[in-house]
Amino acid sequence: MGRTVRIYFDYNATAPVLTDAAAEMARALREDVGNPSSVHAFGQRAKACVDDARQAVAALLDGEPSEVVFTAGGTEADNLALRGGAEALAASGRRRIVTTGIEHEAVLTTLKALERQGCSVVALPVGESGVLAPDALEAAMTPDTGLVSVMFANNEVGTIQPIAELAAIAHRHRALFHTDAVQAAGKIPVSVRALGVDLLAISGHKFGGPKGIGALWIRRGVRLVSQMTGGRQERNRRAGTENVPAIAGLGVAARAARMHLDAHAASAAALRDRLERGILANVPGSVVNGDPARRVPNTSNISFDGIEAESLLIALDLEGVAVSTGSACSSGSLEPSHVLRAMGFSNTRSRNSLRFSLGPGSTAAEVDFVVGVLPNLVAKLRALGRTASAVS
Questions:
Q1: What pTM was estimated for this model as a whole?
Q2: Which of 55, 110, 128, 209 is the most buried (most CB within 10 A)?
Q3: Three-state DSSP class for 150?
Q4: Burial status of residue 145 (CB atoms within 10 A of its CB: 0-12, 13-18, 19 or more)
Q5: In the β-sheet with 299-304, what is the strand arrangement from edge to edge?
Q6: Tell me: the pLDDT tens digits for 64-84?
Q7: Cα gap 300→326, rounded to integer Å
Q8: Is residue 30 within 8 Å of 39, Cβ to Cβ?
């Protein structure tokens, strides 16, 4: 039996729910029992709870509360932006969509579905830095391009894209710009005003809110076709009775993220750098993937020559350390990381990389423990690999 996990370095998969967020959710379950669409006092109390959370999310994104639409998570927010935007643009004939090869599956799989419905999709490559060159987007724009989707921060390597510059290019060509900011919100400043985007998706469980709740920010004036039809909730953008307790928890997490953003970013960056220095100095054949400077402060993606990352992940888990080989949504896949492949790395390097993602609960002692156990674990796995190769 392995040890109970005691060191959690997988915040990009999901962050622990904040104590205050969980408490607010429990309170809402007990006290805000009405339907927010009801006109009586019980309903209006629930509506006030939803409105309060909407203001908190808007403040985190530097937007207006009326521009925030609550969804069941980041995936639904991306779907609403892409499917809703494509459907609204269909009549204009602008059915071409430009994206990148490093997007989350929530975007890439949705775009594949839109291709089957007649849209044309172009996925632009990125270099080893993981950054999309603005010139590449400029060259890809055509008169029939109606939508551009580029993620703010990558979930595997943490790379931050030049969103404001990319959005400006899209707008010069009269295209809408959507960004999946699921891995950016709560980690770095996200201002929809400064970025100039049209659509921006977030997910609550990435920064201390509960799972199953997210939001899509929609710039005022942008037309989307609702993908969830029924009642008139969320300004006719997303039908269905709102999940009041989850929305309440998201609101608390959004306020906390905004309040502690700078302190948490500085702490995470210091711990990440400490982790990388220790690993690179003590584990031969290790290298950091992606741009070392242009990335969110909590994320490190490291390749280890001569091993399979999944084997190292299991070995660390037995030591009580939780990390990831990439997106949690791709767990169980035997394919190499599509992100690292899109960055131009070989299948081998794409299979031998681990993601370490830290959070507010991470400590220097935890980092030092991981740095201490990794060299021996890697050496053992490499020795086993050499033995297996010799036998075969």
A1: 0.95
A2: 209
A3: coil
A4: buried
A5: 286-288, 299-304, 353-357
A6: 999 999 999 999 999 999 999
A7: 11
A8: no
Taking alpha carbons only, the member of 369, 283, 278, 264 closest to residue 322 is: 369
Q: Which helix (H) or strand (E) holds 342?
A: helix 338-342
Sheet holding 68-71, edge to edge: 68-71, 214-218, 199-203, 176-180, 145-149, 96-100, 120-124
The Cα-based distances of 175 to 114, 143, 178, 191, 197 in angstroms read: 17, 9, 10, 20, 11
99: left (phi over 0), alpha (psi -120 to 50) or beta: beta
CA dist., res. 13 & res. 156, Å (int) = 10
Q: Comparing 5 with 383, which gets the higher pLDDT?
A: 383
Measure the CA dihedral 330/332/334/339, to 10°. 20
pLDDT category at 1 given cuts 50, 70, 90 is very low
Residues 6+ apart with CB under 8 A from 67: 58, 192, 217, 218, 219, 220
> Does the annotation mark 119 as catalytic?
no
Check residue 5 and give its pLDDT: 63
Q: What whole-number distance in Å separates Cα of residue 97 and Cα of residue 148?
A: 6
Mean pLDDT over 129-157 rounds to 97
Q: Provide the pairing of β-strand 199-203 with 214-218.
A: antiparallel
Identity at 247, one-letter amino acid code: I
Q: Which domains does the chain have, with CATH numbers?
A: 7-15+261-391 (3.90.1150.10), 19-256 (3.40.640.10)
Identify the active-site residue in 329, 330, 373, 382. 329
In DSSP notation, 228-245 reads: S-SS-HHHHTS-S---HH
Nearest CA-CA partner of 135 in 145, 127, 144, 147 = 127
Distance, in Å, from the CA atom of 335 to the CA atom of 338, rounded to the nearest integer, reads: 8
Torsion sign (Cα): 177, 182, 188, 193: positive
pLDDT at position 69, please?
98
Report the Cα 175 to chain-centroid distance in Å.
23
Taking only Cα atoms into account, the Rg of the chain, rounded to an integer number of angstroms, comes to: 22
Tokens 């994206």: give the residue.
99
